[in-house]
Amino acid sequence: MKSLERTLPVFVFVVLLGSNLLNLSQFSFVSVLIAILLAAIAGVIVFGLVKFLWWWVRR
Q: What is the pTM assigned to this prediction?
């Protein structure tokens, strides 16, 4: 579970960042920043869900 805690959010971040960058309609600094921010938010959410699941299983 500890390795899942590290690898899954990174995987989600990389996949979403790649998807967001490939689907940009116009390439600008703000668009890239928003793509990075959205991918980071999704990675943090997945990290929180894995931590919650780990807490739930150990409870």
A: 0.85
